[in-house]
UniProtKB/TrEMBL annotation:
EC number: 2.7.7.-, 2.7.7.108
Cofactor(s) needed: Mg(2+); Mn(2+)
Pfam family, one: SelO
Keyword Nucleotidyltransferase: yes
Primary gene name: ydiU
Organism of this sequence: Crocosphaera watsonii WH 8501
EC supergroup of this enzyme: transferase
Domain of life: Bacteria
Name the record gives this protein: Protein nucleotidyltransferase YdiU
Enzymatic reactions: L-seryl-[protein] + ATP = 3-O-(5'-adenylyl)-L-seryl-[protein] + diphosphate; L-seryl-[protein] + UTP = O-(5'-uridylyl)-L-seryl-[protein] + diphosphate; L-tyrosyl-[protein] + ATP = O-(5'-adenylyl)-L-tyrosyl-[protein] + diphosphate; L-tyrosyl-[protein] + UTP = O-(5'-uridylyl)-L-tyrosyl-[protein] + diphosphate
UniProt binding sites for Mg(2+): 324, 333
Entry keyword set: ATP-binding, Magnesium, Manganese, Metal-binding, Nucleotide-binding, Nucleotidyltransferase, Transferase
Record's function text: Nucleotidyltransferase involved in the post-translational modification of proteins. It can catalyze the addition of adenosine monophosphate (AMP) or uridine monophosphate (UMP) to a protein, resulting in modifications known as AMPylation and UMPylation.
Length: 567
């Protein structure tokens, strides 16, 4: 997304009325609303939604909302002035009260249904009705679609109260998870990894919900206490929030002949996906079948690049199901995510995520999600054998395309123009043997040292003389390759643009959300600032605080090293 969108230079929207006038629902209106929906969006009880692409629903306003923060960077890109975040009507809308809006913006939002596949296996038990018709946005409600600086954006509140897809939960998000999502999303953008974007964050001064969590110094795997948390609404923004799981829902209905318009609704949602996410990359003059072949290629390209970027920056999504996989190919759902500190290829902060969603397994998880996408779109090609064959071929090529992107990424991390398998495998083994800090290691390596000593700053283990010798010989082979490529200072500069200096360290995030729960947002703002320039050298004070190995006390700490619940 970042590369396709040209940000604005000057803020031009300063009043709420100007903002409202940017609303444009012309694309959403080409889709089908649930025919059983209420006209006023008063639709907050769990129920089955049998057809249609969205359900109009009003958010539930936060009681006594207070401003926590907004993304100044993104406001600037959108051409919104910072004042707007403090505007009374704007604050109302983005804390869930749509009564303040006026035409062309509507006074209700919308939620969408989707299906779930975990690692390529279809699930329906997660729907309380056992049919799949009650699963979807249980607490996310979109409130705005409009064109800003030539780009269509959708704005979605998370934690905005119940929808028909609430499944017996409360529709809320707590401040802890909202701070994490807001900061994580902004940070990913600054890392140059495609992502949904953070807009605003508001908290309730009086409403709380109870969630299982970890007591202080707990080393338990599962939460051991119940905690009252303030509820919050964060707003995220993307060209669309279409997920692979959404396409699957409509394809499942086609397969089971759920209703007479099922195939047409599938066609509509896929063509909507092209319009919303791939318009600039797919020639609209092609036949629909050929557009689908292009869609398969483009999505493959985006998804493989995305996952290669995740590996580059040490990110583990944690729960990369098809319903957490944006069909536009960007990062979505900052729930049980984490960033790898002490290097472990199978790093996984979410206790429910298992090995299959772990750090180095993400390419496999992506392949499973891509397969579900492929399977969902395929029925639309039934009548064009030639296009179907091409479409299938693109699908079969996923593992190879993924591998290419990953190799390109590892080469770039090492300052090489070409992937060297033996060199890479030896490096990974040494990284494991020395238990390196993923970020500090690659950043120190970017200085292109000729000796292992400076790298030791990133080691969690004290290494033996034998390991040190292996490092020396590895460094020698690597440096010889680099010298053949050219100028070391130039390579070093490039490596520093690939290997960030500042990473997400959960033990430095915890104090920020804890402080925020007391009404003090200083640390949230400080993190926003640090995370907005992750590749830059920052002040000595920031370096001393944030460019640090994880302290021993936080290894295996519940809520820091691992978490079972993210909401
Ligand atoms: N507190 C809640 N109330 C209602 N529904 C919820 C709640 N928490 C999660 N859900 C729903 O359960 C499903 C799975 O949850 P998951 O944690 O993947 O999503 P999420 O973090 O809410 O959302 P998203 O994928 O929109 O970022 C989602 O459809 C979500 O809307
Ligand atoms: Mg989700």
């Amino acid at each position: 997304m970042s590369s396709r969108y040209k940000p604005s230079a000057e803020p031009c929207v300063t009043t709420f009325d100007e903002f409202v006038r940017l609303a444009d629902y012309s694309l959403m209106d080409t889709l089908n609303a649930d025919p059983e929906a209420t006209v006023d969006g008063n639709d907050h009880r769990p129920r089955q939604v049998f057809s249609g692409h969205f359900v109009p629903v009003t958010p539930t306003p936060l009681a006594e909302p207070e401003y926590v923060t907004h993304s100044s960077t993104f406001f600037k890109e959108l051409g919104l002035s910072d004042e707007l975040a403090f505007n009374e009507q704007f604050r109302k809308v983005f804390s869930g009260d749509m009564s303040a809006t006026g035409e062309p913006m509507r006074q209700f939002g919308w939620a969408t249904g989707y299906a779930l596949s975990i690692y390529g296996t279809e699930y329906i038990q997660n729907c309380p009705f056992g049919t799949g018709n009650g699963y979807g946005d249980g607490r996310a409600i979109s409130v705005f679609e409009g064109i800003i600086n030539g780009q269509r954006w959708e704005m979605q509140l998370k934690g905005a109260g119940l929808t028909p897809y609430g499944r017996g939960a409360d529709g809320r998000a707590v401040l802890r998870s909202s701070v994490r999502e807001f900061l994580g999303q902004d940070y990913m953008q600054a890392l140059g990894t495609p992502t949904s974007r953070s807009l605003t964050l508001y908290v309730s001064k009086s409403e709380t919900v109870t969630r299982p969590w970890y007591s202080e110094d707990s080393h338990s795997s599962d939460p051991d206490i119940l905690v009252d948390n303030p509820v919050a609404i964060s707003t995220r923004v993307a060209p669309s929030f279409l997920r692979v799981g959404q396409l699957e829902l409509f394809a499942r209905r086609v397969r089971s002949n759920a209703h007479p318009r099922a195939l047409e609704e599938l066609r509509m949602i896929v063509s909507h996906l092209i319009e919303r996410e791939y318009k600039s990359d797919i020639n609209q003059n092609l036949s629909f079948a050929d557009q689908l072949v292009e869609l398969a290629k483009q999505f493959r390209q985006r998804l493989t690049t995305l996952v290669a970027n995740w590996l580059r920056v040490g990110y583990c999504q944690g729960n990369f199901n098809s319903d957490n996989c944006a069909a536009g190919g960007f990062t979505l759902d900052y729930g049980p995510f984490g960033f790898c500190e002490n290097f472990d290829p199978w790093f996984q902060p979410w206790t429910g995520g298992g090995k299959h969603f772990s750090f180095f397994n993400q390419p496999m998880a992506a392949e499973a999600n891509y397969y579900m996408f492929w399977k969902a779109v395929r029925p639309l090609l039934a009548e064009d054998a030639e296009a179907l064959e091409q479409f299938d071929q693109v699908g079969r090529g996923f593992p190879e395309a993924m591998q290419k992107q990953i190799q390109k990424m590892w080469a770039a991390k090492l300052g090489l123009t070409e992937y060297k398998p033996k060199l890479f495998e030896e490096l990974i083994q040494l990284m494991i043997d020395s238990e390196v800090d993923y970020t500090i290691f690659f950043r120190e390596l970017s200085q292109i040292p000729d000796d292992v000593e400076p790298l030791k700053k990133s080691f969690y283990l004290k290494t033996s003389q034998q390991i040190d010798e292996q490092w020396q010989s590895w460094l020698l082979s690597w440096r010889n390759l680099l010298i053949n490529y050219g100028n070391l200072p130039e390579i070093s500069t490039k490596m520093k643009q690939t290997n960030p200096k500042y990473t997400w360290r959960e033990w430095l995030i915890v104090p920020a959300y804890q402080q925020a729960m007391e009404g003090d947002y200083t640390l949230v703002k400080e993190l926003q600032e640090v995370f907005s320039h992750p590749y830059d050298e920052q002040s000595q004070e920031i370096e001393d605080k944030y460019y640090r190995l994880k302290p021993k006390a936080f290894f295996d700490a519940g809520g820091v090293s691992h978490y079972s619940c993210s909401s």
